[in-house]
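Tokens in:
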């Protein structure tokens, strides 16, 4: 696929990559992780020094008027540096969702995101929902001029550090119905939200939320009472394209580290990289990476396409990426030998993130099935 960045996008890419090389080494990342909590200094640099929080957001809220390509450029760079920050959750998913919904409340929060003064997480997944976005059991009942929400949300990535939560809940229908889902905005520390925090295997913070008579004002409703699902589907597809780009960055680093290691590590008096069998394996890794690059471009360029076309492109990309991540990751670890999964080497940490990305927003099997079902629907 022939794909070129505009001058502005190329500058954004170069600026971010240079900043991360100079200020966010693997050792620096480890120190910040051990310090615990959100990395406020990094987020402030994202907003004030680099401007990447505003890059894909609309100009009407203080953004730079970019879009999916800018988000792809940022996510790939963050993946290559294994950056620990909720850019995906706050800017790509929540920012995209709020931009699509529109309205005074949404725009006010978007302005805070662009300025770096708010971190936001989408609380949509539930214990029984798996990857079915229409499966929402959480309920929202009218209560005077406001709403009462009750239910459970699971694996809400970014929730422990979020200021605001976007919560999906049913105002009508039953779990599985496409109609009847609404979207609400709530303070993350509001009474009525019980949070159980934990970390995923890649060290990212997540939480399970229990909503018990969560009382929200009337203007907390961001959508119509039952028409939030299409907005959520578009936002999750944007998030899926985002992790595809991040996965490309992760694979680039694993590939580079593996090539460097095999050039340095000697066996039988010569570098590992001189053995033809290992050369063939690294060529296969490179081919898998290039397939993932093309798939990531395809998903990104189709995010503004009609729903069916967008969904097919995203599922094709995620299925391709999942297979490539597993192949490149497993071979990178194997070619590093027993050192591949030690805490001291970066490759093991990249492999953990690759494993999470492979599952995030749907496995290979899930997206192959979704792609196939969309093909059958089109044929019918």
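Residues out:
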């Amino acid at each position: 696929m022939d794909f070129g960045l505009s001058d502005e996008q190329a500058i954004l890419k170069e600026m971010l990559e240079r900043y991360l090389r100079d200020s966010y080494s693997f050792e620096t990342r480890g120190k910040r992780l051990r310090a615990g909590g959100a990395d406020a200094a990094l987020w402030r640099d994202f907003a004030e020094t680099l401007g990447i929080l505003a890059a894909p957001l609309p100009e009407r809220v203080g953004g730079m008027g970019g879009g999916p390509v800018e988000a792809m450029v940022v996510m790939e760079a963050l993946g290559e540096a294994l950056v620990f920050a909720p850019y995906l959750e706050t800017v790509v998913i929540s920012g995209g969702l709020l931009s699509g919904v529109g309205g005074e409340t949404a725009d006010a929060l978007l302005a805070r995101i662009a300025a770096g003064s708010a971190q936001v997480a989408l609380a949509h997944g539930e214990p029984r929902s798996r990857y079915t976005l229409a499966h929402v059991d959480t309920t929202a009942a009218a209560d005077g001029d406001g709403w009462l929400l009750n239910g459970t949300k699971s694996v809400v990535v970014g929730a422990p550090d979020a200021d605001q939560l976007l919560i999906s809940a049913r105002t009508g229908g039953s779990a599985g119905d496409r109609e009847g889902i609404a979207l609400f905005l709530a303070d993350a520390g509001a009474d009525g939200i019980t949070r159980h925090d934990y970390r995923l295997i890649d060290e990212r913070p997540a939480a399970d939320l229990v909503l018990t008579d969560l009382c929200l004002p009337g203007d907390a409703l961001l959508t119509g009472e039952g028409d939030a699902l299409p907005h959520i589907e578009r936002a999750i597809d944007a998030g899926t394209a985002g992790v595809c780009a991040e996965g490309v960055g992760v694979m680039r680093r694993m590939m580079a580290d593996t090539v460097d290691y095999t050039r340095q590590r000697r066996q039988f008096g010569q570098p590992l990289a001189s053995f033809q069998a290992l050369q063939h394996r690294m060529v296969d890794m490179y081919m898998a990476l290039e397939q993932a690059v093309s798939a990531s471009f395809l998903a990104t360029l189709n995010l503004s396409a009609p729903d069916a076309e967008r969904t097919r492109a995203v599922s094709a990309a995620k299925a391709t990426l999942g297979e490539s991540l597993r192949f490149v990751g497993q071979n990178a670890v194997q070619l590093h030998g027993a050192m591949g999964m030690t805490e001291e080497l970066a490759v093991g940490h990249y492999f953990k993130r690759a494993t999470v990305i492979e599952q995030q927003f749907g496995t290979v099997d899930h997206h192959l099935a979704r792609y196939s079902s969309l093909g059958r629907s089109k044929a019918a």
